[in-house]
Each structure stands twice: as C-alpha cells, then as structure tokens.
Amino acid sequence: MDKSIDKAVADLGRDIGDYIKQQRSNAKISLRELSKLAGVSNPYLSQIERGLRKPSAEILQQIAKGLRISAEALYVEAGILQQREGGALADAIAVAPELTERQKQVLLDVYESFRRENAAKQSKSDVDGNEPEE
C-alpha cells in the first residue's frame, strides 16, 4: 500500500479518536464509564482515542450511544459518511425523537431559508463592498 494512503488512514484514526475523547470530556465521562456505557473494552476504547485503532461502524454506533450523540456525527468524523448540508444543527433536528417528521421538515426548511438569505446578503455585500446587514 502507498505510504501516503497509510498516513491518511492513520490520521483518520487519530482524528476520530481525538473527536471521541473531546466528546467524552465534554460529557464529563471517564474512559471507564464510557467503556461500560458503550459495551466496548476499556483498553480498546483507549486505543481508539489514541489513534492506534480505527473503529468499525458498529463500534462507533455503540460509542455514540454511550456518549448520547448521533452515530451519524461519529460516522462523519470517521469519514464513513459525508457531512450533510446544514451540518450539526440539521443532524440534531433529524435525530430529535420528540419531533414529528413534519416538524423536523419545517425546522429544516426555515433553517435553510435563513442560510440562503444570509448567503445572498453576503454575496451582495461582497459585490457592493459593504458590510452585510443584520
């Protein structure tokens, strides 16, 4: 295998490990606690966080469940999925169990309309050389 590909795969493992460690830290969960919540051995989880192992989609799903974040967010960080238009907010809306499908769609539509409006204002201000309006 090409050395540049090996390095890219290693970097990807390190990136997902750093992301998991950051999320665990934000949730104020110890490595041992996450290991129990996710059903993943403590040594294996430690190796993932240090970038020594690249977890499978199934393991990422278990870790996401333990962290109480969307598995999709971990899949994006791991390079398994591409980030959806709208980013983390759109992801959060999509997985919110307390919302109906109709409510999710309305929220996403409103969000996208604001994004388009702001992009249009930014484009106009770039052309005019003015600051965008609030």
UniProtKB/TrEMBL annotation:
This is Helix-turn-helix protein. InterPro entries: Cro/C1-type_HTH (IPR001387), Lambda_DNA-bd_dom_sf (IPR010982), TransReg_Diox_bact_type (IPR050807). Pfam families: HTH_3. Keywords: DNA-binding. One of its GO terms (cellular component) is cytosol. Residues 20-74 form the HTH cro/C1-type domain. It comes from Umezawaea tangerina. SUPFAM superfamilies: lambda repressor-like DNA-binding domains. It comes from the Bacteria. GO terms for molecular function: DNA binding; DNA-binding transcription factor activity.
